Amino acid sequence: MRPYEVIKAKRDGQVLAPDVIRAFLDGYVKGDVADYQMSAMTMAVFFRGLTPPELAAWTRAMLESGEVLDLSETPGLKVDKHSTGGVGDKVSLSLAPLAAACGVPVPMISGRGLGHTGGTLDKLESIPGFRVDLSIADYRRLVKSVGACLIGQTATLAPADKKLYALRDVTATVDCIPLIASSIMSKKLAEGIDALVLDVKVGSGAFMKTIENARVLARTMIGIGSEMGKTVVALLTDMDQPLGRTVGNALEVKEAVEMLRGQAPADYTELTLALTAEMLVLGKQASSIDEARAKLRQAVTSGAAERKLKEIVKAQGGDPAAIDDLSRLPKARTTVAITAEAAGFVTAIDSEAIGLAAMALGAGREKTSDVIDPGVGFVLEKKLGDAVTAGATLVTAHVNDDRRVPEVIDRVRRAYGLGPAAAPSRPLVLERLA
Fold first, then answer.
1. Where are the domains of the chain?
2. Residue 204 falls in the annotated catalytic set
3. pTM, whole model, 2 decimals?
4. Which member of 89, 161, 267, 373 is catalytic?
């Protein structure tokens, strides 16, 4: 079929055969299908959707558009974790060394932050010398010898996804569940994993604002994994407030190290343990979640998890002394206290607004070409349910550019909702799907 016929068929709600889908995506990667034709196809998918067999064919074509890594030389079941993106979500920084310290190899290909959500790669690069641009050969070697490696997407892995995402970003088709699911799963399945744990965020700081949409996305990705012979578990988790106390790259690295020392906020610690415990069970290093949690607590108290993080940092060119001495991480020039204008209880925190305020400071990027300032960001002094007096500090901003301070103060104050009584607490893990 000609590209025109394929687009018209999907526009009219017809089901496309797997070989038609593969030919269309292959043609796009080779340049035989133009950007304007793929734009029309993604909009057709946006409105018409993809049936499960179509989605499996679409994902497989994206996956096989490049190199699919073979990590069979590394003993054991390889397990990764993927988050759909949130504010203050530094879980990967602590989860990877924790899982590796407990015997689960973690091959992790991560992304950069865009918009209000932070990126694992940007956080890692705030560690002096840390390299995320390693070769595939180095990636394979480190997964085997160290037990974990965290790098960025290479040109040879799922190139169809890389090209297609850039197009979706400018054609209003990013928030389409079949396209989100195929994008995530094509990259993750190319890593060489045996199983995957998904952290699907729900709430004001997430792309999925409702639990219904998050549930559909999770089930869609679990279905793709099943079609590809991979075990996938998903946790739907709360993103109605930033995770932990810090938002910003070096600040989040510091909190991640503190988590591995048993000193991090309860919500961040709990989510890291919940996700990593699932990885240990999938990786056959524990027979139950309870056993997995006991092993993880031991890895923290014995120092094994922090030692593993330093091993990963050194192996990827970073300075492990920055983990021992957190003052060696990048720091902002000054701090500014953002205070409450009235008394009450914190009843709401608009996580997306906090993320956008951090971006305004320079902690995130609006365009892929923007440069990150690793030292800036926020420390949240008050979170949901906390009592606040007038003039009390809600957030401490770490700032390098004073010109941005008035805008940032206004954004943060508007992000906080105060009321006369504390709102009922919401569970951190809302559902588990498998």
1. 3-49, 79-324, 330-419
2. no
3. 0.93
4. 161
